[in-house]
Amino acid sequence: MAHAAPSPAKSTTSLTLANQASLPVVSAVDQVDTSYLQTLLGYNARRAALTIIEGFLERMAEFGLRPVDFSVMSVIQHNPGVTSRQLCAALNLLPPNLVGLVQSLEARGLIHRQPHPTDGRAVGLHPTSKGSALMQKAEQAATDLEVARSARLTSAQRKTLLELLQKIYL
Amino acid sequence: MAHAAPSPAKSTTSLTLANQASLPVVSAVDQVDTSYLQTLLGYNARRAALTIIEGFLERMAEFGLRPVDFSVMSVIQHNPGVTSRQLCAALNLLPPNLVGLVQSLEARGLIHRQPHPTDGRAVGLHPTSKGSALMQKAEQAATDLEVARSARLTSAQRKTLLELLQKIYL
DNA sequence: TATTGTTATACTCTATAACTATA
DNA sequence: TATAGTTATAGAGTATAACAATA
Fold this sequence. Notes:
Chain A is mostly helical. The first copy, chain A, is built from 6 helices and 3 strands, in the order ααβααββαα. The first copy, chain A, has a single domain, classed as Arc Repressor Mutant, subunit A (Orthogonal Bundle), CATH 1.10.10.10. A 3-stranded antiparallel beta sheet of chain A has the order 1-3-2.
C-alpha cells in the first residue's frame, strides 16, 4: 500500500562538501510526502473535520453559533426538556464546560430553563420561540452547506461516509 | 432522510399543573435524539476523529508523542531535510505553533537541524538515529492501532473511508 | 518587496478537583 | 452513597501581530 518506505523523498539540491559522487550530506525536499499519514484514519478524520468546520464557522457566524453552540441548540430543539447531563452524554461534553455555554444561550434568549418534572436536581432546557426560529434557519443553512461541501462526493458516497464514520464513534 | 422532524421526542413524564388532559407543561426526555446532527458530515467527522485520537493518545504515551508530534516526526522521517515552512503547509499548522514543538523534539534528541543547502533563511529538519528508531516503532504501533480501531470495518470499508475523507480535505 | 523563522501574546478549548443540593 | 449542576482553575491548542535575517 501507500506505506512509503522511509525513502529520502525527492532530493533535489545536494552536496556542498567534498564528495561530489557520494550521497548528499545535506538534502532538500521539494515535494513533501505525507503518504504514510494518509493511511491513518485519525489523521484523515481530523483533517477532514477541521476543513468542514472551517466552512461551518464562516457560515454560522451570521447566527452567532459556533459548532458546539449549534450542536447543543440542535439537541435542545429536537429534545425539549433535555437536561445538561443528557446533553453532555449525547455530545461527549464535560459538565463544567457546558455551564457557561448554556448560560450564554439563555442570556441571548434562545433557551429557557424549567424545573425537571420528576427530578428536583435536574433542570430541563427548552428552546424559546426565538431560539426555535433561529435553529430552523441555522439547520437549513447547515444542510445547504453540507450539499456544497460534499460537491466532490456523490449522494451515495456521502451516505456511505456518514455510515462509516458512525461505525467509528457510535 | 433521517432529518427527524422537530418532534418533541419521547416525552415520558408530563404535566404537574391543572391541565390533566391537555399538552404537558413541562416535558422530560428519556432518550436523546441526535438524528439530525448525524446527518451532518462535520459532526460525524469530528466525533469520529476525537474517538480515534483518544485511543491514539493512550497508545502513543509510551513514545511521548501527541498526535501533532507524531505527524511532525513522521513527515520528517519520510522527508529528511524538510523545512518548518513545508511542514506547516503539509500539516496545516501555523509557524509560531511549530517553533516550540520543533525545539522540544530537538531537545529530546529526536531531530537535528542543518542549514538548508540553497536557502540561507531556511533550516532543514532531519531525524536522528534515535528519532528514526523511535518512529519506526511508533508508526508500527499506529498501524497496529488502526487495525484494532477499525475492527468494525472490513478492509474494503476502511479503504473507502480513507478515500472519501481525503476527498473532503485534499 | 517577499519569505523563513521567531517572539510575544491573547484567545479558545478541554480537563480536573471540589462544592451544593437533591435522590 | 450516588447524581445534577456548578465553581474555580489549570493546561493544551490555536490565533494574530510584529520583528530580524535572507532571498
